[in-house]
Amino acid sequence: MNFNLTQIPDRTKKPRNHGLTMVMDKGLSLEEAKNFLSVASPHVDILKLGFGTSFVTPNLRQKIELYQSADIPVYFGGTLFEAFLIRNQFDDFVNVIKDYGIKHIEVSDGSITIPHAEKCGYIEKLSKIATVLSEVGSKDAEHIIPPYKWIELMNAELSAGATYVIAEARESGNVGIYRGTGEVREGLVQEILTKIPSEKIIWEAPQKAQQLYFLELIGCNVNLGNLAPHEVISLEAMRIGLRGDTFHLFLDKA
Amino acid sequence: MNFNLTQIPDRTKKPRNHGLTMVMDKGLSLEEAKNFLSVASPHVDILKLGFGTSFVTPNLRQKIELYQSADIPVYFGGTLFEAFLIRNQFDDFVNVIKDYGIKHIEVSDGSITIPHAEKCGYIEKLSKIATVLSEVGSKDAEHIIPPYKWIELMNAELSAGATYVIAEARESGNVGIYRGTGEVREGLVQEILTKIPSEKIIWEAPQKAQQLYFLELIGCNVNLGNLAPHEVISLEAMRIGLRGDTFHLFLDKA
Amino acid sequence: MNFNLTQIPDRTKKPRNHGLTMVMDKGLSLEEAKNFLSVASPHVDILKLGFGTSFVTPNLRQKIELYQSADIPVYFGGTLFEAFLIRNQFDDFVNVIKDYGIKHIEVSDGSITIPHAEKCGYIEKLSKIATVLSEVGSKDAEHIIPPYKWIELMNAELSAGATYVIAEARESGNVGIYRGTGEVREGLVQEILTKIPSEKIIWEAPQKAQQLYFLELIGCNVNLGNLAPHEVISLEAMRIGLRGDTFHLFLDKA
């Protein structure tokens, strides 16, 4: 950090196993990705190539290598996994993963419906070749999952081999753990936390008010996801109490 | 495309005469424009220098050449045309067009009121020196044009020599074919489509929900405009069913 | 400017003492800052490193030098000043300012409560080593300051040595001189202007509708702040009537 300030909360350091910031790249050019890394690299733990953007992005191989050479693991958005699956191309998916030297995989069912045992089967199988992040929650705003079910799903997926479970929000932050307005389903989140360790959950939280909620609830080292690349420095300042919203959060109450 | 996936709808290829993506540059630097092209070039068909930004942007000549050398035609936002016109500087406008080697022109009346025959006169005259895109719809939210009138205006402008008609939305997507909330005036759009071929219309659709509406209504090769540069890759993924919103749109119904 | 257009209002030229555009950088990389300057430099008068982002941004020294070498003064967001102050590290703050060669300082009390005489004491002291911009208004939406009090505070701070007073809005534009919806508190603004010269006030106005309000009220050379870097060219076009919103604002009424 650039200056000496007292009462700055302890952030975990890379490689972190919690306190993660997961960023969504939805089509940066190579040069933009380099610029992004030059300023944000110490604060980015994992990078998602959002939904199916990796299918249409030129220079995909170079971009993956660029991130990996900065020690930032890359994975394809779960929508791509689902796109292969619904086309009966699971083996092709595995080959793509291997071909691109990808070491992290998201297993999700946000757009498709599969029996949960089958989803856990994919988690188990893929966890043998990569670190698996599994996502819980539907992209369909009409499809409400009750809290006890979120807990059951998360537990089963962690047992099946997922290293983290991701709580769904979409890029816009208006489904899954949020209402259509972006407001946090607080009861849901708090009930989940009675049963699942917060270190194992990555909360998709693209909006500032959502990030603030989790910083207040869990602390500066909460795992947050779906950050836009240009928001990473702002989030890092906010995590340690150097933004108006969190200014008093970590100060000694004297 | 980077992988083999079945059931990907057929996108038209450049140079496209429909399936267009029109992007609004409202002040990119040369370097940013290069970065943008390096990732989005295959997916950008035409580029608008938004409203009067070309008046204040440094390196304008180089930027126009940069886009043109990537085979992407450039035009000035209609507001600039109107700014010359209201100052009785139409001839100056033509000279600027020639001086900068511009081959595409937008003729609009979003901020000014001119008799429609006069507007069509400009379209006719300018279509002799360039490809004309004419824009229908007012930037004034209070000025509601009934559907039959949209159709009359569009037909007359195409007859006068416009290659495409653009349906107005502004950069923010809240006038013209949209309500103040950004919601599509669906009845209007559907009535227009009974009389004007969709291939001839570029729908300004800066918001994701607006893009989705047109993809569902018209298909993956709908002409869409006013895209922000960094949204082009996302849109392309969405066009072919690789984003949650359009995931099921192009899959075989078995 | 790139073309000849009549009836373009007279913008002040750099170095301006009013007509200022103040930009908030909340974590640009060096390369991004260079790109930004290459297009926006003539239109940027002062640059704020937003809230505590300067604490976590790598290459801070080089970035400050980069802006300063383009004759754009840099200052730390007031939240950083307050973060030092609440930790009883005022002297450390002064040393940081000197160490980084900073010549502009924001003195604010948006997140902390200090007696106003004490705030004015800091303004007086710091104005001996730098140009002081002092900010009036709380980041706390519940904390409403009545108009006469805004005027008292602004007058006292200008008398204490502030070169400009900044009217608080946060990055999001929803506190201070705005309602939670972003709507301008028009009565407040107009009452302030009966007593404080508009040349001495920088209005934080991150939203387009807010910029428009001040352009209509005060004219093209109003001081505006908290602009996002990529909005500077758009704002400049809007300032001189080359955007739909301001198209008629500066035209001769014949």
From TrEMBL, chains A, B, C:
<dbReference type="InterPro" id="IPR003830">
    <property type="entry name" value="ComA_synth"/>
</dbReference>
<dbReference type="InterPro" id="IPR013785">
    <property type="entry name" value="Aldolase_TIM"/>
</dbReference>
<dbReference type="InterPro" id="IPR036112">
    <property type="entry name" value="ComA_synth_sf"/>
</dbReference>
<protein>
    <submittedName>
        <fullName>Phosphosulfolactate synthase</fullName>
    </submittedName>
</protein>
<dbReference type="Pfam" id="PF02679">
    <property type="entry name" value="ComA"/>
</dbReference>
<comment type="similarity">
    <text>Belongs to the phosphosulfolactate synthase family.</text>
</comment>
